[in-house]
Amino acid sequence: MQHKLSMPLKKWIFILPILLGFLSGCTFLEPLVYRIDISQGNFVEQEAVDKLKFGMTYDQVRFVLGTPMLVEKGLPNTWYYIYHFTKGHNDTVQKNLIVTFSDEKTLMTLSGDFNQSESFYSAIN
Predict the structure, then answer these.
(1) Distance in angstroms (rounded) separating the CA atoms of residues 93 and 84
(2) Is the dihedral of CA 67, 72, 76, 82 positive or negative?
């Protein structure tokens, strides 16, 4: 004797997995979907920061680090180098470097996620 599934039961067997997929937002499938690495902003390395010296001019700093991501209109002597990196499904990593100049437009301080070199206050060659 063969058992035949009733028509409404066949519909539910087909519809229920699809409905559950929509309700879950397909989050269980997200790790299977490829995500590109996203790199945004100014990529700054400690090597470049180590080249900075107290008293460097705007042009010298720009030559070493590149153009800053942000220079506030009201604070032109403060430059922000901001870098975001997201690798696939991993959390975003952000690195910041804040460069401050004097009113004479020479480098005064560095702050953020990078250490200033031990030779920061030595003479510029």
Answers:
(1) 6
(2) negative
Q: Are the CB atoms for 110 and 99 separated by under 8 Å?
A: yes
Q: Are strands 107-112 and 93-101 parallel, antiparallel or unpaired?
A: antiparallel
Q: What is the rounded distance in angstroms from the CA atom of residue 63 to the CA atom of residue 51? A: 11
The distance of Cα 6 from the centroid of its chain, to the nearest Å, equals 55
Q: Is the dihedral of CA 40, 72, 59, 94 positive or negative?
A: negative
The structure tokens listed for 36 are 């590109």
Could you say which DSSP state residue 31 is in?
Answer: G
**Cβ-based neighbours of 26, under 8 Å, separated by 6 or more:** none
For residue range 30-75, list pLDDT tens digits in order: 677 788 898 999 999 999 999 999 999 999 999 999 999 999 888 8
Q: Which two tokens stand for residue 11?
A: 């519909």
